[in-house]
Description:
The protein is an alpha/beta fold and 319 residues long. It has helices at 17-31, 60-69, 81-84, 95-102, 111-116, 161-168, 199-208, 223-231, 241-247, 260-272, 274-287, 293-307, and strands spanning 2-8, 36-40, 48-53, 74-78, 105-108, 125-127, 147-152, 175-180, 192-193, 211-214, 235-238, 254-255. The strands form two sheets. Strands 2-1-3-4-5-6 form a six-stranded parallel sheet, with helices on both faces.
Amino acid sequence: MIEVLIHSPFARQSSQGNSVTADRLERMLMDGGLRVEMEEESYGGVDAECLIALNARRSAEAVADFDRACPGKKVIVLLTGTDINHEEMEDPKSPTRRTMDRADALVVLHDAEHQSVPDGLCEKCRVIFPSVTLPDSVQHQTQGDDFTIVMAGNMRVEKNPELAVAASLKLPENLTMHLYGNDFEAALGRIINHGMVSHQEMLAAMAQAHLLLNTSIQEGGANAICEAISMGLPVVASAIPGNIGMLGVGYAGLFPSNNLTELVTLLTGVASDPELYAELKKQVAARAPLFTYATEARAWVDLVRSQLPRPFPPSPCDG
């Protein structure tokens, strides 16, 4: 019998975040001395001591099938942003909530998600921040005379790009905004649109910028914010739970969601006040250790070991 079965609701070769997480988690657990297998989309009958489901709602059927095939075995469920923000979270009879009720442990990706879990389930929760591994060549070092603001990712409606467009028209001329992403075809004001670029190009642009901007009205936990924190790039972001959870309560670069006046004031202030900019750099640097591979690996290995019956010798993750 294997010890850990990881279930991803998406095909392994897809670019979905669940699939990326599944590959990283498999590597961490195997490096931690655990016997691991991976399954995609549906449960195939594998006998395991513990199932890790990488989405409460989309893995609900697989969790139920595993529970019938392996009664009494352990179940760990990773709650994603789509779980936290879905209407099923409020329905105790929904597949999402049934999966959460069955779980022996729940994992959330930051502190604010922990606060969104219904009463009675919070004691099952463990916060494990996602890790970011950047190329050695990616180090934050600003370039150019202008104060450069970068937006990264697909500009879906939840990202609230219209607010950034409106802000671009009110900022001083020496503040330039650059968009690296797609899915936004409306007028961009003074934003320079670079379109869809490779991940490597986007990271290079972030490393040379002064600031990352996130104007989302709903966010589970933006990968670009994790990357910015890891490289030391300050962030200005809307004060929504997903962003607060990543950046921390009291972070000085937060503005009230969808508030144009406050956003323009904050961006102008950060660009013109070296002490405020230095404070953002300091706060970002303090968060960076939360997003290291070693920190994430240690937390996952410790959690899984706590659910398994056999004792474990020290592993590389223990150091």
